[in-house]
Design brief:
- Strands 1, 2, 3, 4, 5, 6, 7, 8 and 9 form a nine-stranded mixed sheet that branches.
- The protein has a single domain (7-154), classed as Nucleoside Triphosphate Pyrophosphohydrolase, CATH 3.90.79.10.
- 18% of the residues lie in helices and 39% in strands.
- Strand 2 (19-25) and strand 3 form a beta hairpin.
- The chain is α+β, with helices and mostly antiparallel strands and 163 residues long.
Length: 163
């Protein structure tokens, strides 16, 4: 098997009705821009766990991954760069609050998306898609059965039964 270095980023998409949890970057090259709670995957970390870690770090809330909402792939200086946006559920009582990386963390209705200064067109498209689509790749965690981190993401079986 041949392996290749890869840049892997993740985001948490938390939806409430027709709103998405967004954060406003406090510093860095995206200062003042809006996007999803996001970051990079650490060595030895599953991407879905990185998305939950970033959600906790940026918004002070815990969540549960429901599945994959979007994937962006590109080449970055000749190296594959993958960005996975996970659909995440948080308790209905949870109130996101910003940490020192972001200046704001709040649910923004889709009607206000066009007014925001987005981190990227791709992130804007991911948020719009999350509001308008109910379909995600569902997550099945087989770590207990396999004895090591192992997650399978598949289209939901709409007929109800295991294949």
């Amino acid at each position: 098997m041949h392996s290749v270095d890869c840049d892997v980023g993740v985001a948490a998409i938390v939806r409430r009705a027709r709103s998405i949890l967004l954060v406003k970057e406090q510093r860095g090259k995206y200062e003042g821009r809006w996007g999803l709670p996001k970051g990079y995957v650490d060595d030895g970390e599953l991407p879905r766990n990185a998305a939950l870690r970033e959600l906790k770090e940026e918004c002070n809330v815990d969540g549960t991954v429901l599945g994959i909402q979007s994937v962006r792939e590109r080449l970055l200086d000749g190296m594959p760069a993958i960005f996975i946006a996970y659909s995440v559920d948080i308790p209905s009582s949870a109130v996101p609050s910003p940490n020192d990386e972001v200046s704001e963390a709040s649910f923004i209705p889709i009607e206000q998306f066009s007014e925001l200064n987005w981190i990227s067109d791709a992130m804007h498209a991911m948020a719009v898609n999350a509001v308008n689509s109910k379909h995600i790749l569902s997550s099945n965690d087989y770590e207990h059965e396999r004895g090591h981190p192992y997650v399978l993401h598949t289209l939901p079986n709409l007929r109800g039964g295991v294949r």
